[in-house]
Each structure stands twice: as C-alpha cells, then as structure tokens.
Write a structure and sequence with these properties.
The structure holds 2 protein chains of 2 kinds.
Chain A lengths: L2 H19 L8 H17 L5 E6 L4 E6 L6 E4 L16 E2 H14 L9 H7 L61 E6 L2 E9 L3 E2 L12 H9 L15 E2 L2 E2 L49 E3 L6 H11 L4 E5 L3 E2 L18 H15 L15 E6 L4 E6 L6 H17 L3 H5 L9 H10 L7 H11 L13 H7 L30 H18 L51 E6 L2 E9 L3 H19 L3 E2 L40
Parallel strand pairs in A: 3-7
Antiparallel strand pairs in A: 1-2, 1-6, 3-4, 5-6, 8-9, 10-11, 11-12, 13-14, 13-16, 15-16, 15-17
Chain B lengths: L29 E2 L5 E2 L3 E3 L5 E8 L5 E10 L5 E3 L5 E3 L14 E2 L2 E9 L8 E9 L2 E11 L2
Parallel strand pairs in B: 1-4, 2-11, 3-11
Antiparallel strand pairs in B: 4-9, 5-6, 5-10, 6-7, 8-9, 10-11
The chains are: A alpha+beta, B mainly beta.
C-alpha cells in the first residue's frame, strides 16, 4: 500500500469516525487553575486545617502548587498495616508537595470522557483483596499500578525549573508522578464540558495512605478539600466510578460530596499569592494554563499519516481509525516505529510492528468496555510493543484512553519480554550492578531499617517455588502469570496460604512494599525524594553528604530509567520504566523464538488481556511471517507450582459489541 | 552506515561545559566489568556547550576496541562512531562501531559529546564498552542537565 493510498484512506476515516473517536478539545485556563486553588484554600481555611494543593493538566503538567501557612511540610506514609518495609511507615521525609502532585496526577491519569476515577477508586483496586477487607477475595484488578508513572521512567517527560534554553518537551506529557500513582483519598479529576482536563490533589491531614475498609463511609479531610476545589469542574454524574462495576462490585469515587463542605466554593475569596510555591522537578511559581489534550503541544495527538511516516500510517490503516501517539521535539513521534533486536536470528521487522499495533487497536475498537460509560462503549487503551531487550518498537492508543496506560502498557510489555527471556535470572542476580547502587541502598537502610534489599533472592524464591530452571528456561510469561506469582497469597486471595515467590510475605507486605516490583525501583524513588527536597544525606558516615558529588549544593535527580537492571546481552536497561504485575501483556514469538512482547492498558484487565492476545493472534494470521504467540507447550499455564496452575491470559466472555462470539481467545 | 539526524555533531567544540565526572563514591575513575557497572552521573551546567567525557581504568586488560552508546528517552539507542557521529545500533555488540579511543597511564578516556545538546531531552543514558581478551566490559552513567 502506498503512502498516498494510506493518506486517502485515513482522510476518509477521519471524516467518518472523527465525531465518535476524537476527544473534544478542552483545557484548564490560568483562571480555572486559580479558581480550583482558591476554592480548596477557602475550605481548608474555614476548617482551620492548612493544606497543600496541586493542580495538573490531563498530561501531568503541574499548573500550580499552593501551600498554606502551617500546612504539614511532610506526610507519613501509612498503609495502616503496621508494616515497616518499603516506604510504608516513612515519616518526616516525603514532602507534602510530592503527595499532593501525585494525587492530582492520579485523578487526571485514571480518568477519561468515559470514566471518572479518583485516588479513592485507586485505593479500592490496588489492595490485596478486592474489595479491600473482603476475606478470600483475590487482589485488586490493578494490583501494582501504584508503581507506575515513576519519576525514573524513561517514557515520562521531565520539567526543569527555570531551564534556559527551554527543553523541547518541557510542557509535553505524559509527565512523571513523584510517588507513582496514589491510593490516598483526596485526588480528583477535573472536567470541563464532560472532558477531563486535569486533576486536583490535596495533602492536609499529614498521612499518605489508603482506605483499607470500603464497607464504611469516610470523612476524609483531604477529600473534602479536593471536592471543594473541584466544584464547577466535576465529572458528569453518569461516568463517575460509582456508576461502574468490576467483577460485579461497584467502584467508589468519593465518600463526600458538596453537602459536606463548610464553605460555598463559588464565594471563595482571593488567595495570598505568597502561598504559590515551586517544586523542584515539577513546577515554578507562575500559574500555568493546561495543555489541550490532543494537540502536539500536549505531547499526545492524532497520527499524521504523512509526517509520522509509513509505520504509523499503516497502524491507522490496519486499525480502521486514526489513533493517537506521543510526540516530541519538532512534533515527531516520540517512539518511531523501528525493527526489533535480533534474538537467535529472529526479530520483529519495521513492517510487522504496525500490523500488530493496528490489529490490537482494531480489537479494542470492536470490544465492549468494562470501565466506560455509556454501556456499549468500546475499549480505549494504549498499546506498546517492545523487542526482547525491552526497546520500544512502537506505541499507539485510542483517542480517549486514560493517560496512565501509556506508561503501564509499556511496563507490561517489558515485563513479559524480560521475564520470558532466558537471561532473566542472570540479569536479576547480576553481581556487577546491584552493589554499585549501594549508596542508595544504604540510604534506604537508614531510612527504612527493616527493608532488606534483596532483589536476587526473588530468583531463589522462584527456583524453589516454580522450578530450578525458573527465569532461565524459556517459559513464556504473560503479565497475568507474573501477577499470579507476585501476590501476597498464592493462589491469589487465599489468605491461609503463603506468598507468591515475587511478593513479600504478607506480614511485611503492603501496597507501599509489594516485593520484586518495588524493590527494583526503590533506589530510584528514594533518590528522587532526596532530589526534590535537596536533602544531601550522609549515609556512609564520612561526615559529608553522598548525593551531591559535584559539590554544587544540588542533589542529583534519579537518572534515565528505573531499576538497576542491565541486560547481559546488550548492556542496556530492559525494564526502564519499572516492572508491572497486573494483567495485559503477552510475549511475541517468531518461528518459535522470543522476539518481544505486546502490552495493553486502559480498560479492565480482561479486556487488556484480550486486546493483547487477540491483536497478536489476528496480526500473526494476516502477516504469515512466522510471528505468533508462544508455542502452547512453553506457556506459563503449563506450570502448576504448589499444585495451582498459572494463567496465561483471561479474556472476557462474549466481549464484542456487534458480535455474538463468546469465547474469543479459546484455542488460539 | 547512515548518519542519524538526532545527534549529528555540530562541531562546536570550543568551550567545554562543566561536566563533572566525580561519582557518588568519590572515585574519579572506575573499572568496567563484563556484567556492567554503574558510573558516576555527569551534570551539565550549560547544555548548549556540552563536553562529556568519561575516564575509566582498564587494569591489566589489553584493550582492543572501544565503544559508546547513547540513549535518549523515546529514541532507539545510538552508537557513536570514530568521527563522533551517532548512528542507529541493532543492539548486537558485535556490530558496535570502534571509536579507537587512546589509552594512557592505565586510563581510557571515552569522548561522548562535544556539541549543543539543547534540542534534546534529558536525562540521557550513556553506556561505554571496551573489548579485551574476547570479553566485552561495560559501564553506564546518566547525563543530567542542571537547568
């Protein structure tokens, strides 16, 4: 197909589908941002509970941070589980600004024009039981999503305070979230005319935690102040989390509404301008207007079939609509379509990658969404493809997919590729790299005395639990299978049993300390906290700080890429935005050899699984080049550790909008 | 091999920016290993005139070839060639371009950048390699901007 032909087809698709596939253009003005801040400040002031408040746009640009006099300068991280590993229990270290920004980003990133989710919603779906507190219930469907959008992600763009010259992607998203996604109530999305335009996050009560009991109705200070701030920018009632069910359970949006407010938001007075503060790595003092999602300036826009090259033009042609992609610099694709690295003589070509992406998006557009309103909406997701080394070969998304899936889909793809490759054990046990981050590890030990830094031990656990050849025997792992092994109970939810081999034991487990996933990124997270605070700790005890090697009075930020892992075959980081442990990915094979993985995120996990699995299957049929799923004999569902069979994927029953097909993934 | 447009050398090479190479451990130069080692970050005070070099120790190794790979967020890894130009790399270590860096007094000096880096996003990840006695040894570090 020629570029000209593709362009003509796409022009027709835009005309046909533009009304239903494109998100309406909206953004927060500077006045909007000021109004949100002033409404929140008024509510906090009336209650005499000084707060820190952050407002972001949809792609995570921090538009303003306001700190009232007397607001708690730091938060105590507390899951309520009385564990002291990971960052759980960390007191007096994490700035309230980081908590407030993380909560605002979470409200914005989890939401879309079809669903409005909050940090309370996040709390409900990341804990060890769903619903939290429900005995013998499996873990939350997004178990582990809190460790996404990490400050070390190689995908997220960074803000440089007062930078000159201004970096090319200074105001493009998706931006990182300082603590990952938040499960602490008090983070809400902001809407204008039914379109999500950003989020507001509040830290006033001094605790960064979660809601461990959804059977009651809370009166949460942070959430009340956030509700006040979001007045006039609330989501449409029909798309609230409380209108959406998952596994037959209704999600929660907020435990309070406008009736709980002590002041009238519309009468909020002007705020003291001295309260606006800059946050290192995130914002400067002047209020910013938000970017308009869908514009090049936002960093996420529709594919341009001419200027984005034949790869993305072909993604659109196969998908049957114009997808969105990330842009960078002079409006070029952030992830150009490229061929994959060869593994044992096999690789994904630059012609195969768009076909897989396109077929996955085509499946999404034909399937019934789990988390979107109105009913019969189609699935909206981001799809990422990586090679066996975790290098990104292409990424595309449906127009209104939640932003969080941009990072998560890539985490999922990398996790499937990394764990399925025969050097996974060697790379996790690499003796050369892990000691080299000892300074950060020492800092962790100083800050978190009970947290043993034991990444290689997870390989030992896998060998004992799954088999002696684990992570070096070429078993094909999906993220669903890795999730099975990364829960604090095995099988998931059976609380009389011990933990999976990639999880901490339940006695030391919490959503702030999950196991291998967290331990791989903890050095980056702590480093970033010290950077934001410019806190130059002396952890080696030599009388001088260890985080300002230049001696210029500035603590260095965490570098490009999460985790200290480097591949022993390329020297590059195969998990550069962190490990993910909930479903939605499958490894890709070619003529029986692992060549990469596809990751999907943005809807229910069964839908994500199906888009990845069927997308790859349909592409393999069309391509006829040897690209395929893993041979059945090496899939993770052939393993039954402790007598319990691992899963490969789980697709929804009768998943399509215009078809009666019931078991879409069976036999493939 | 084609020249990659992203990091085409601009031939500035005049005033070197303050690229610090002293690491967190306080060691100015470290040895590379076959399993990789994390080297001290480099912080650029002026990204418009960026000179980035990295010295490593090579002990008793007889260095045969030297290589540099740069990763910018969102872009495929690029390898540096002997002329200081950056080209795409297929991640096959046997295809890495030899930069021919000179050895002196037990140290090997990798030249990475000497150009205007302001059009690019930060941080960047740089991996330096040398081949000796049939083994590939490597280390990696981040290049950060100080606004």
């Amino acid at each position: 197909m020629t570029a000209k032909t593709i362009t003509c087809i796409l022009a027709g698709l835009v005309a046909l589908l533009g009304g239903t596939m494109s998100a309406k253009a909206q953004n927060l003005s500077g006045l909007d941002v000021y109004r949100v801040i002033s409404q929140a400040v008024q509510e906090a002031a009336v209650r005499n509970r000084p707060a820190t408040i952050a407002v972001t746009d949809r792609v995570g640009n921090v538009l303003a941070v306001y700190q009232m006099p007397g607001a708690p300068p730091t938060v105590t991280v507390n899951s309520g589980r009385n564990v002291r590993t990971g960052i759980d229990g960390l007191a007096g270290v994490v700035p309230s600004t980081m908590a407030a920004i993380s909560k605002a980003v979470t409200g914005a990133y989890l939401s879309s024009s079809g669903n409005a989710f909050s940090t309370r919603t996040a709390s409900q779906i990341v804990q060890r039981n769903f619903n939290p507190g429900e005995i013998l219930a499996p873990g939350g469907p997004l178990f582990g999503v809190q460790f996404s959008q990490l400050p070390c992600s190689d995908l997220s763009r960074r803000y440089f305070n007062g930078a000159s010259p201004v970096p090319p992607d200074q105001f493009r998203g998706p931006k990182r979230s300082p603590l990952g996604l938040s499960a602490d109530p008090g983070g809400l999305p902001l809407y204008i005319n039914g379109v999500v335009v950003g989020g507001v996050g509040v830290a006033a009560d001094g605790v960064y935690g979660l809601d461990a009991d959804v059977s009651d109705i809370d009166t949460d200070l942070d959430e009340i102040i956030a509700v006040a701030g979001s007045s006039g920018y609330a989501p449409p009632q029909d798309i609230l989390a409380s209108r959406i069910t998952v596994e037959g359970k209704t999600l929660r949006f907020s435990d309070v509404d406008a009736r709980a407010l002590a002041a009238t938001p519309g009468l909020a007075p002007a705020v003291n301008p001295a309260g606006f503060i800059g946050v290192t790595g995130y914002s400067d003092v002047p209020i910013l207007a938000g970017q308009t999602y869908g514009s090049s300036a936002s960093g996420v826009r529709p594919v341009n079939a001419v200027s984005d090259g034949p790869g993305y033009a072909n993604v659109a042609a196969v998908a049957g609509f114009v997808p969105f992609l990330l842009t960078s610099g002079a409006d070029a694709p952030f992830f150009p379509v490229i061929p994959g690295t060869a593994n044992a003589g096999q690789n994904l070509t630059a012609a195969e990658v768009p076909v897989i992406l396109g077929h996955a998006l085509r499946v999404a557009a034909s399937a019934r969404a789990q988390i979107r309103r109105p009913l019969q909406s189609f699935v909206q997701v981001t799809v990422s493809i990586v090679d066996a080394e975790g290098q990104v070969l292409g990424q595309a998304r449906t127009p209104d997919a939640p932003i969080f899936g941009i990072d998560v889909s890539l985490q999922k793809a990398r996790t499937a590729a990394f764990m399925s490759k025969q050097n996974a054990a060697a790379n996790l046990e690499n003796p050369g790299v892990f000691p080299s981050i000892r300074v950060v590890a020492n800092a962790i030990n100083g800050l978190i005395p009970n947290h043993a830094y034991t990444v290689p031990n997870y390989v030992t656990n896998m060998r004992a639990f799954v088999g002696p050849g684990s992570l070096s025997d070429g078993i094909a792992y999906t993220d669903r299978a890795i999730g099975n092994l990364a829960r604090p109970y095995f099988p998931d939810g059976v609380s009389t049993n011990g933990n999976g081999p990639l999880s901490r034991p339940v006695a030391s487990w919490s959503p702030f300390s999950t196991g291998l996933q967290f331990d791989l990124a903890v050095g980056n997270i702590i480093n970033h906290v010290l950077f934001v605070r410019n806190l130059n700790l002396d952890v080696t005890g030599d009388g001088r700080g260890d985080f300002d090697p230049d001696g210029n009075g500035v603590v260095n930020d965490t570098g490009l890429g999460c985790t200290p892992v480097v591949s022993n075959s390329s020297g590059l980081n195969p998990l550069a935005n962190g490990l993910q442990i909930f479903a939605g990915s499958t490894p890709i094979y070619k003529n029986g050899v692992l060549v990469g993985a596809i990751g999907v995120s943005g809807d229910g996990i069964d839908q994500d699984d199906m888009v990845a699995f069927l997308g790859l299957h349909n592409a393999s049929v069309g391509l006829g080049t040897g690209v395929s799923h893993a041979p059945a004999a090496i899939r993770s569902d052939q393993l039954a550790p402790a007598g319990v069979r691992l899963r490969y994927v789980s697709c929804p029953f009768s998943p399509f909008i215009n078809s009666n097909e019931q078991r879409a993934c069976e036999g493939k | 091999m084609r020249i990659h447009g992203l990091l085409r050398k601009h031939g500035i090479g005049t005033v070197a920016a303050l690229a610090m190479t002293v690491g967190a451990s306080g060691v100015c130069a470290q040895e590379l290993t076959v399993t990789g080692v994390q080297l001290a970050s480099v912080v650029l005070s002026d990204v418009r005139q960026a000179s980035v070099e990295k010295q490593v120790l090579f002990g008793n190794d007889v260095v045969e070839t030297t290589h540099v790979v740069v990763q910018l967020s969102g872009n495929p890894p690029l390898m540096r060639d002997r002329q200081g130009l950056f080209q795409s790399w297929d991640l096959d270590p046997t295809h890495l371009a030899d930069n021919g860096f000179v050895q002196s007094e037990g140290r090997l000096n990798f030249k990475v950048f000497n150009q205007d880096l302001s059009p690019h996003n930060f941080p960047m990840r740089v991996t330096v390699y040398y081949r000796a006695n049939g083994e590939l040894k490597f280390g990696f570090f981040d290049v950060m901007r100080a606004n």
